[in-house]
């Protein structure tokens, strides 16, 4: 006959050859390989201080006839440590889910049992197919003053352990990060970036349960983030970007009133619009090839409109700024 | 001393008053803006309550001020209006029902809080409670204002005597503290719920609605 045997790491294991007498002549194999007689005490196999590598199939054969008398599968493992449990509502007000894992592996099969108590009522947490260590619960009532108590018990052949979480309905609300974050430069605006995103698809009712957002951005070359909090809308224009620098941008979401901020979204990269420099090369070629009196201090022909927002320094820009100031002065006079 | 007595009397008087003529302001501004103001008030009160509850629970002492404290709900606690509601039912509430539920709840919670105010030990707590009561009264009036500007009647008799006749006074000190604990908890939950109630109302009642109603009344 054959069966499975579970033993703790570091234990001493004695295997008997089925119903054979102690003084019978037997041969033991481990995964098909003969085991040296030094490990035998009569017909018993002695394994001291077992480790994980000693897991495997052990077989016992009668000495002369080579009949298989006994077979067992040895699995070396550990009893479970206290499991790690987390519960979260990313789909408020529909319900919440709990997920769990063991801090260290046991190397043998474990079974999990989860119980949810709300006041005096037992609730059923439906296990998800994928991922395995997760279950979800639908709220029957909203705005409850009574806490939820979730207990997770882990059991395996070598022992059991458990952990408990107690929380209020509002405390575990944490949306998923915003989705489809897109950042684009704005044509003719060297200091702007247009960022847009969408509500996380897991949030079921943004109409009645609106989300607010937190945007953070910085140029790749700096460590310090800038932050903007937005109470509605799913887009924002950054107006103080450093010209020509690549930016990294992320967004997070939170229910307007309760719970905590989501994790940061996937980061997007964008660089503000910059003017094409090809006219400068043309200028240089002209001044080199001709000794013409065409002034190289005049504004390049491609710059037709003065961009007030430009930061990039250039001699031509000084002309633009002055023109801009004159226009501004006139408009102030006329208001 | 005397000033507290007068203040309590005034609070009690206000308790039984229907919404004041300050409504004219809300009608001019439009129901949409009043709803926004009421929403803002609930957020402000929620913030205030956090400090007040912390102080009060410490005053009650353990186990009430322990974060894990999770007592079973006793039958006597049912006097305090509960914010808990079935999800579909909550979604399906008419604007009138939604507002009325809030109005009734805060009117009663206010009265219970005032009873508390009269019994509390330290001066700091009395001061905080009085301030909170005043703000809560403002919320009740604000909700009343929204209801009137939308043409809804105010719920009748929003505030009876603090304890309905025949209801037992807490037989011992511990149960009295339990009552206080649940009162604060229900208040907190109602403020969370109201934020969601007023979010829904915000979306459903644009200012244009009030203009139509004013025209209908021949303004």
UniProtKB/TrEMBL annotation, chain A:
Q: Which organism is it from?
A: Hylia prasina
Bilayer disposition of the protein: Lipid-anchor; GPI-anchor
What GO molecular functions are on record for this protein? ciliary neurotrophic factor receptor activity; interleukin-11 binding; interleukin-11 receptor activity
Annotated Ig-like domain ranges read 10-60
* Highest taxon, organism lineage: Eukaryota
UniProt key word Signal: yes
Q: What is this protein called?
A: Ciliary neurotrophic factor receptor subunit alpha
Q: What keywords does the record list, in alphabetical order?
A: Cell membrane, Disulfide bond, Glycoprotein, GPI-anchor, Immunoglobulin domain, Lipoprotein, Membrane, Receptor, Repeat, Signal, Transmembrane, Transmembrane helix
- A biological process term (GO) from this entry: positive regulation of cell population proliferation
Automatic annotation (TrEMBL), chain B:
Keywords assigned by UniProt, alphabetized: Cytokine, Glycoprotein, Secreted, Signal
Q: Which GO terms describe its biological process?
A: cell surface receptor signaling pathway via JAK-STAT; positive regulation of B cell proliferation
Signal peptide residue numbers? 1-22
Looking at the record's lineage, which domain of life comes first? Eukaryota
Write out the GO cellular component annotations: CNTFR-CLCF1 complex; CRLF-CLCF1 complex; extracellular space
This entry's Gene Ontology molecular function terms read: cytokine activity
Q: Where in the cell is it found?
A: Secreted
The UniProt subunit note reads as follows: Forms a heteromeric complex with cardiotrophin-like cytokine CRLF1/CLF-1; the CRLF1-CLCF1 complex is a ligand for the ciliary neurotrophic factor receptor/CNTFR. The CRLF1-CLCF1 heterodimer binds SORL1 (via N-terminal ectodomain); within this complex, the interaction is mediated predominantly by the CRLF1 moiety. The tripartite signaling complex formed by CRLF1, CLCF1 and CNTFR also binds SORL1.
Which function does this protein serve? In complex with CRLF1, forms a heterodimeric neurotropic cytokine that plays a crucial role during neuronal development. Also stimulates B-cells. Binds to and activates the ILST/gp130 receptor.
Per the record, the similarity remark reads: Belongs to the IL-6 superfamily.
Protein name as catalogued: Cardiotrophin-like cytokine factor 1
Q: Which organism is it from?
A: Hylia prasina
């Amino acid at each position: 006959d054959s069966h499975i045997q579970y033993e703790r790491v570091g234990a001493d294991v004695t295997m008997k050859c089925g119903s054979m007498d102690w003084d019978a002549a037997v041969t033991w194999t481990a995964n098909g390989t003969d085991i040296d007689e030094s490990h035998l005490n009569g017909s018993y196999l002695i394994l001291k201080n077992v480790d994980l590598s000693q897991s495997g199939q052990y077989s016992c054969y009668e000495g002369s006839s080579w009949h298989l008398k006994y077979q067992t599968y040895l699995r070396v493992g550990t009893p479970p440590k206290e499991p790690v449990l987390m519960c979260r509502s990313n789909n408020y007000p529909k319900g919440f889910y709990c997920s769990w894992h063991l801090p260290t592996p046991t190397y043998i099969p474990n079974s999990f049992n989860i119980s949810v108590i709300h006041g005096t009522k037992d609730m059923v947490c439906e296990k998800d197919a994928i991922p395995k260590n997760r279950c979800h619960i639908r709220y029957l009532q909203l705005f409850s003053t009574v806490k939820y108590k979730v207990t997770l018990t882990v059991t395996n052949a070598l022992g059991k352990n458990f952990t408990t979480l107690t929380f209020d309905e509002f405390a575990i609300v944490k949306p998923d990060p915003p989705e489809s974050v897109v950042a684009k430069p704005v044509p003719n605006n060297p200091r702007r970036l247009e960022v847009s995103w969408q509500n996380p698809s897991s949030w079921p009712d943004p109409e009645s349960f609106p989300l607010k957002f937190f945007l953070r951005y910085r140029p790749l070359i700096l460590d310090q983030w800038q932050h903007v909090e937005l109470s509605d809308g799913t887009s924002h224009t950054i107006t103080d970007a450093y010209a020509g620098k690549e930016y990294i941008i992320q967004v997070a979401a939170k229910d307007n009133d309760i719970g905590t901020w989501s994790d940061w979204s996937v980061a997007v990269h964008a660089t503000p619009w910059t003017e094409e420099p090809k006219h400068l090369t043309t200028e240089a070629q002209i001044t080199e090839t001709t000794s013409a009196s065409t002034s190289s201090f005049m504004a390049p022909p491609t710059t037709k409109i003065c961009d007030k927002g430009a930061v990039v320094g250039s001699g031509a820009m000084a002309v633009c700024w002055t023109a801009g100031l004159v226009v501004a002065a006139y408009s102030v006079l006329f208001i | 001393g005397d000033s507290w007595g007068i203040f309590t009397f005034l609070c009690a008087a206000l308790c039984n008053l229907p919404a004041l003529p300050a409504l004219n302001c809300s009608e001019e501004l439009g129901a949409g803006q009043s709803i926004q103001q009421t929403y803002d008030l609930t957020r402000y009160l929620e913030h205030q309550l956090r400090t007040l509850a912390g102080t009060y629970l410490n005053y009650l002492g353990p186990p009430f001020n322990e974060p894990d404290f999770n007592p079973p709900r006793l039958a006597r606690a049912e006097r305090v209006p509960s914010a808990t509601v079935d999800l579909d039912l909550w979604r399906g509430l008419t604007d009138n029902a939604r507002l009325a539920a809030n109005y009734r709840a805060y009117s009663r919670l206010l009265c219970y809080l005032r009873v508390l105010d009269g019994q509390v030990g330290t001066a700091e707590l009395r001061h905080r409670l009085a301030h909170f009561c005043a703000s809560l009264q403002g919320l009740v009036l604000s909700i009343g204002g929204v209801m009137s500007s939308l043409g809804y009647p105010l719920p009748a008799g929003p505030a009876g005597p603090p304890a309905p006749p025949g209801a037992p006074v807490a037989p011992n000190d511990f149960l009295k503290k339990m009552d206080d604990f649940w009162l604060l908890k229900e208040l907190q939950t109602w403020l969370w719920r109201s934020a969601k109630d007023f979010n829904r109302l915000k979306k459903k009642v644009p200012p244009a609605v009030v203009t139509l109603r004013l025209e209908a009344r021949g303004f």
